[in-house]
Write a structure and sequence with these properties.
The protein has about 250 residues and is an alpha/beta fold. It has ten helices and ten strands. It has helices at about 1-20, 30-45, 55-65, 75-85, 115-125, 140-150, 155-160, 170-175, 220-230, 235-240, and strands at about 20-25, 50-55, 70-75, 95-100, 100-105, 130, 160-165, 180-185, 195-200, 210-215. The chain folds into two domains: about 1-95 and about 210-240, D-Maltodextrin-Binding Protein, domain 2 (3-Layer(aba) Sandwich), CATH 3.40.190.10; about 100-200, D-Maltodextrin-Binding Protein, domain 2 (3-Layer(aba) Sandwich). Strands 2-1-3-10-4 form a five-stranded mixed sheet. The protein has a five-stranded mixed sheet with strand order 7-6-8-5-9. The protein is elongated and about 60 Å long. The termini are far apart.
């Protein structure tokens, strides 16, 4: 009995000694899927993950100010930028992609956004809307600098837009502050009180692929690589696919 207790205590000490805390800086679009995948990884390994989620623009400011972590998850298009800044170790891996869409308050009539013409009509008729501040997030930059100019209505729509600063901006719709939200779809599905209308028309949509990288100066680089390897494994990626992401 004593030997069994001693062995159990020894095992616990050993596990605690090798367990690591992996810190993560990540774009907000992957929050729900990442959190789900991490639960299983923590149970398997005994390691812990401490993640901070923010728009890409906010992450850029944090890293420029000297903040670091073991893992950085950002849109693939931003990886080269952070790499040139000397923030990343080689070997980033693509996790999953997410398209942009729209959401309205639960119970509200479903607007037509199925074609560019229908989307334009919906935008002109809506009283108010929200999308991410273009200086802070990938989806807002695309909506403001690509979608609205393509439809020829940027000035008109900007006048009635309430820009989102981060997080689940569709909550503004749920609270009745605006009529419709345009954002990455995976950041609207978790919001209670809204209905996701669907994706933007294919011609105007943007599928953002998120990639994970080990950061230079990572305190736990081996555990960081192990976490990334798990996230791109069939088991880890399933959490992303189940939350509305597409395979990269």
């Amino acid at each position: 009995m004593k030997r069994t207790a001693a062995l159990a205590a020894s095992t616990l000490i050993t596990c605690n000694a090798i367990a690591a805390e992996v810190t993560v800086l990540s774009g907000g679009a992957v929050k729900s899927a990442f959190t789900e995948a991490v639960k299983a990884w923590e149970q398997k390994t005994g390691n812990k993950v401490n993640a901070t989620f923010a728009p890409a623009g906010e992450l850029r400011k944090k890293i420029a100010a000297g903040e670091s972590a073991d893992v950085l998850i950002v849109p693939r298009e931003n990886v080269e930028e952070f790499d040139k800044a000397g923030a990343l170790a080689p070997g980033s891996k693509d996790l999953a992609g997410v398209a942009m869409g729209a959401a309205v308050r639960k119970g509200a009539p479903m607007p037509d956004i199925s074609t560019p013409e229908a989307l334009k009509r919906t935008l002109m008729e809506t009283r108010s809307l929200t999308y991410m501040d273009p200086t802070r997030g990938t989806s807002g930059k695309h909506f403001d600098e690509s979608v609205l100019p393509a439809l020829g209505i940027r000035d008109e729509i900007r006048k009635k837009a309430v820009l989102g600063e981060g997080g689940y901006i569709a909550e503004k719709v749920a609270r009745g502050e605006v009529d419709i939200a345009f954002h990455q779809m995976t950041e609207m599905y978790p919001v209670q009180g809204v209905t996701v209308v669907g994706p933007l028309p294919k011609e105007l949509n943007k599928v953002t692929v998120y990639a994970a990288s080990v950061m230079k100066g990572a305190k736990n680089p081996e555990a960081a690589r192990a976490l990334i390897d798990y996230l791109v494994s069939p088991e880890g990626r399933k959490a992303f696919l189940d939350k509305g992401f597409s395979a990269p």
